[in-house]
Amino acid sequence: MVSGKNLQLTEALKDSVESHLSNMRVSYPKLNKAEVVLSHGHGKFKVEIVLHGNKINLDAHAETDDMYKSIADAVDRLDRQLEKKLETYHHNHKGEHLGNIERRHEEEILEEIDDY
What we know:
Layout lengths: L1 E4 L5 H17 L3 E11 L2 E10 L2 E9 L2 H26 L5 H18 L1
Parallel strand pairs: 1-2
Antiparallel strand pairs: 2-3, 3-4
């Protein structure tokens, strides 16, 4: 969802946001929702992006003199956050295949439900 505050939200801006986020979605298919707020104030263009996914909730802000640069900066920050989160996740699971980790996690949840 893309929204604008104190500025005219054009198709070009929407397309820019969607193209940046679609590249991220290809790299991280577990992402399922993005909330983007574009705003203008005090001569600066601000971007706030909140990403939601399977066990992932991240947000990033950027503020520059150019809206397209702000969009790119915010997406770059999110990308770095996701990389760091995935590195930590893989490090904690000692290189185990992600499918095995997810399957084991689902089994643990089902056991907890059965015990309840």
